[in-house]
């Protein structure tokens, strides 16, 4: 358990004393600098309770005593030291001043008056320095008084000293006193009134120097003690501002009033109007610049949104559109518009169309300027507007067709641009032209190096390396804009890809022609070694022994990475047509033959694979239109991915062979990683088998061996499902092939393995061998001896796969033992309980996947989505298993006897649990099937109460969309069987329903296995996971480490939770943490088992208990109304299970404290281990589970 600052106070105090007394030169300064961050950390800690003091063995008031001791020692050093030492001490307190200014009257840090009882002694030492020191000492003392404002705000002597210093003849002393006075004004309203009058007089008198008046103007921003004080200061400052002050002083006053207004919602609208008046009128350039800066500050603070109106937009648009206004002003106006637009999104529907029209036209003109900064900001804003319009259209109707056409007719791209997407509404055409304009600016630097002469491109320019770096940076920013646009408009990505194809073709032609014909005219051609197989041309002579590298050789790799990212987005959206397929084929071929990139690199592999997938998906769409009957799809095609799966495998294998031949081992490993993430298991197994002999470290060998076993097992499943394709792939491993022939056999691929289906009845024994391999992969990682938490995700993910295969193996064994033609209700009497047991296991497995997806705070969104899809698969199969052979509406006497024997009174419970689970997962995916399931659920009298923490799948990717079709077919089939069983009384009439149910369950099991099993990208992130440790203490401080209680009493516990490995950067900001404790009487430890049990920690193979605790914790959070620990152990307590809940407010280091009561009064004597699980809620309200990285404590019930 990490120490809190209060527990370190005594140690810090001793170190400070030793450092200040040290005679070693500079040691005292080093010690002072060291104590600053410590005090800053201590100041942000919450108030310490008695429970926390007991945990660390602290005496009440001990922390406050040592804090005062540290402050007094610093004050003594300030009193007796030289001015250099005093400056060092002042820096320590200035660090805390930021915290003090931020909190204002709510400040409760280490310098708060209530936490420093001997503040008088502290102030006396500083006052002595002011009274006896020179001018510099007085200045330092006044600054320190400002830092101690909360301590000295009621001291008349200090107040008088500050006011007296305002009349000093020394400028530095007056400025220091103004600083101190401003700090005091944040805490004392009456003092603020006095100071305000002095400030006004000081500025109006015009006797003081410019430095003093500037400091006085700055002090206006500190009048934040109360709303009335802020209002008085604002009115006085505004009156001065509108008077006859110098422009420089007016600019400073604008900044001060803006800071003052940002803290008050009543003043902010008035301040915005004041700033606009300076921007709009004929003010000095410095005032306009400062007014725009202030407006940007207010907009960025978030409080300005309520004050953004048409006048603000009109003024900013006018600035951007006026060519007589300096470009710097226009860029600042564009930045403000970007901030305003971000704050308005996604509320675009509230914006008037004429305003939007003017804004788009202005951005069009600004995007065509020659100034790079203005052009970039305008394009960025234009892309944001288009994306926001698309998001707004989804929920509030589309932009009017007339408006879109008007926008498009006024928008003119570059003269060289051609409109590739002429069809569609005006908005689509506008997106097309915006994309072409961005591409034009990307290609412009390259065109500057060549000119057209009689149709031939001839080199004319000469780019230095330094100059090309800025061009490459600008190119990357423009490519990012297109990616952002393609996320909402996939057509933009296709347009960009087509232009990149044309550019690559042109550059290669220029490269060849230059090398053959123009070598003598243009200088030497030097090849720079940028890596194996990556030739790049360098034009022009050498300068200072530095090679001048062609801009094209730098831009082409950027464009290749962009093409892969763009194709990924386009493929996920499904926006591919036949024309786009032809373009993508040409793009892949040109990239492979390009002079600027290695044809066997990983990026080229990804490009070819993406292009291949796009072409196959397009072909599948032509064969299977979107409005076709899904039932025929399921019956004839199976899962669409399997139609071109073999071609993907072959392509990956060919690239891997070429990479290994060139000794590009890292590229080959990346192909293996890609293959695992796409479900290409033959290629993955081949890659890892070739790489495993070349690694040196034991940890890398264990990692590759585990991957090889996993890939080998999954490839064997593929071989069982598709024997013909699998055998051909295995035989192809020994042959030489050419990866450039990627698209020659797409048509053949569509029908070569069409309809190939293996017999499921032979799978049981073969899956047992696969199951053994998968388990071995997990065992290797478990025995690798790596740091705790490194392979937790990997082992857990593999273990869940093994559990799924085990369930499927048992199900297939049961199904293969019953012939469909002989199925009848009597023979099903023995099968029904087993099938229902499988359904419950699959439902638990789905929740296990949920817990896996939410237990790693740094997981990426795509991996989360992949795991959620696996959970949905288990939930759908659980639903089919539960209801395909279970007829709720049948009135058959024999069938009801089956239910009574197998289920008893739990029928309604498990039906509700399984149905509710699948409805929650499909809630955002398919409204039609969800409504049918809700109606089905109400048929057995269960109300819906959706719980927000269930992991749901978004139907945005091609795999998700295709999987959803398979799931819809299965669910619809089950619901139809249930409908047909309604009112059936004759046992003989149930036989066809049982036959249909058995066939549906068999088909669904096969279809589910045919869905590509893909490893999430996060699987290849090998690092310690973020988890939590929980520390238990007896609430009795006399025996805090002795967790024991007398029989018949409750166990009172103090708890400390600590995040581990929290230094890993995540997108999650923890706001609150919760914990559940549980213990059963049946878990009493045997004699001598205490030491053995305490070593047990997180075990990925045994997560059933953790899933159960997580479900309990989620229900607790849902029912929580305020104070979490008030529920204590009321819910779930009893003879079978004792539970307790605790809530934690974590500090910056992820450490929190709480207490609870565990009701074990009914437990017999003995020793018990507490099971626990924790979770956290982030700042957006999302739930994340935390892996327990230490075992629960053991307590004993014994007589005193």
UniProtKB/TrEMBL annotation:
<dbReference type="InterPro" id="IPR056516">
    <property type="entry name" value="INTS7_N"/>
</dbReference>
<dbReference type="Pfam" id="PF24436">
    <property type="entry name" value="INTS7_N"/>
</dbReference>
<dbReference type="GO" id="GO:0032039">
    <property type="term" value="C:integrator complex"/>
</dbReference>
<comment type="similarity">
    <text>Belongs to the Integrator subunit 7 family.</text>
</comment>
<feature type="domain" description="Integrator complex subunit 7 N-terminal">
    <location>
        <begin position="66"/>
        <end position="403"/>
    </location>
</feature>
<dbReference type="InterPro" id="IPR055195">
    <property type="entry name" value="INTS7_C_plant"/>
</dbReference>
<dbReference type="GO" id="GO:0034472">
    <property type="term" value="P:snRNA 3'-end processing"/>
</dbReference>
<feature type="domain" description="Integrator complex subunit 7-like C-terminal">
    <location>
        <begin position="1027"/>
        <end position="1198"/>
    </location>
</feature>
<dbReference type="InterPro" id="IPR016024">
    <property type="entry name" value="ARM-type_fold"/>
</dbReference>
<dbReference type="InterPro" id="IPR033060">
    <property type="entry name" value="INTS7"/>
</dbReference>
<protein>
    <submittedName>
        <fullName>Integrator complex subunit 7</fullName>
    </submittedName>
</protein>
<dbReference type="Pfam" id="PF22966">
    <property type="entry name" value="INTS7_C_plants"/>
</dbReference>
